[in-house]
Design a protein that fits this description.
- The chain has 124 residues and is an all-alpha fold.
- It has one domain.
- The protein has two helices and no strands.
- This is Trichohyalin-like.
- It comes from Globodera pallida.
Length: 124
């Protein structure tokens, strides 16, 4: 800066100082810097909250996937059990039919043997 310019600047500063403008400007500047700093802190806190929310969301997504897989396993097991029940019902039905046939055969065999015994008794 030229000496003349420096002299003008110093005069302006003295004039501003005399009216207290420099002090007011300094206070305003400090207040603005404080607000900027406060805003930066708030933004940082919000960014951290967003990051935590995203992490929590990811954990929930993972847990949901685990639950869905578990549900699929349970559904598969249910289908297997239902199939096994059908097989057992079919086996029971066959067993009952065979049992009925055996009872019928036994009944007729018993009648035949009793008739034979009666015939033998009549002969004696």
């Amino acid at each position: 800066m030229k000496d003349a310019d420096l002299k003008v600047a110093n005069e302006w500063q003295r004039e501003l100082d005399r009216h207290g403008f420099m002090q007011q400007c300094t206070k305003l500047l400090q207040m603005m810097e404080d607000k900027v700093s406060e805003s930066a802190k708030l933004m940082e806190e919000k960014e951290k909250k967003v990051e935590r929310s995203e992490q929590e969301r990811e954990k929930l997504r993972n847990r949901l996937s685990e639950v869905e897989l578990g549900l699929l396993r349970v559904e598969d097991e249910k289908r297997e059990l239902q199939h096994r029940i059908k097989e057992l019902d079919h086996s029971l039905k066959q067993s009952n039919e065979l049992n009925g046939q055996l009872e019928n055969k036994h009944y007729h065999e018993e009648r035949r043997l009793k008739n034979k015994l009666r015939q033998l008794d009549e002969v004696n």
